[in-house]
Write a structure and sequence with these properties.
Blueprint (H helix, E strand, L loop, with lengths): L6 E4 L5 H11 L5 E4 L1 H7 L2 H7 L3 E8 L3 H13 L4 E5 L4 H10 L4 E4 L15 H11 L3 E3 L5 H11 L3 E5 L8 H7 L3 E4 L1 H4 L4 H15 L1
Parallel strand pairs: 1-2, 1-8, 2-3, 3-4, 4-5, 5-6, 6-7, 7-8
Helix pairs in contact: 4-5, 6-7, 7-8, 8-10
The structure holds 6-(ethoxycarbonyl)uridine 5'-(dihydrogen phosphate) (O7E).
Length: 213
Amino acid sequence: MQKKNRIILALDVTSRADAMRIVEAVKGYVDAIKINWPLVLATGPDIIREMSRVKDVICDFKIADIPNTNKLIVEQAMSRGASAVICHGFTGDDSVKACVDAAKGQVFVVTEMSHPGGKQFTAPVADKLATLAKSAGARGIVAPATRPERIAALRKIIGGLEIISPGVGAQGGKASDAIRAGADYIIVGRAIYDAPDPGGAAKALADEVKEGM
Ligand code: O7E
């Protein structure tokens, strides 16, 4: 994924037509497309291949199972053209390593989640999850734009690994704050795909990212 605009589009729409319309409008302003269950369940897994022809695709299935099942899920995602996958770390190091092996390192591990409930169970163990991501050989972590101070703290733990950061816009986080705190990329969904002009919204965010650099 080329680090240019430092925006990953969270394409959580539920029709192929909407997905194509939005990607067409914003493709000049985003570096990758994150695909989650809503789009895959609505349109079928071949949407991964289709989107990968336009941009790098990160499959956000938040994989959280035993090592063998994790491996099988990752293989299915990668064989359809995904460039990276996202997994949970609370399942333990063997499960994360199974993802890392199957994706040849292209794995992001969720740490502290961005929503209010993320403080309940994920925040208390986020530092350990970041340490696990590093020792398992992951490419990076997912850290909350809603709490930029946590991005900065997690950065100290992971060193040069990448941070991708959701929570900008609809969840209240600011793009420039997340980038300033140490995020490599922001992940943005509703603030782009629900905007009256998704292309304009993506461009405005790309400008704001530059402010944070
Ligand atoms: O709030 P939005 O609409 O900008 O969407 C945010 C996206 O990021 C959405 O797809 C959601 O599933 C994801 N996300 C979070 O919002 N918070 C998290 O803590 C983690 C994720 C996530 O994507 O994890 C993997 C990157």
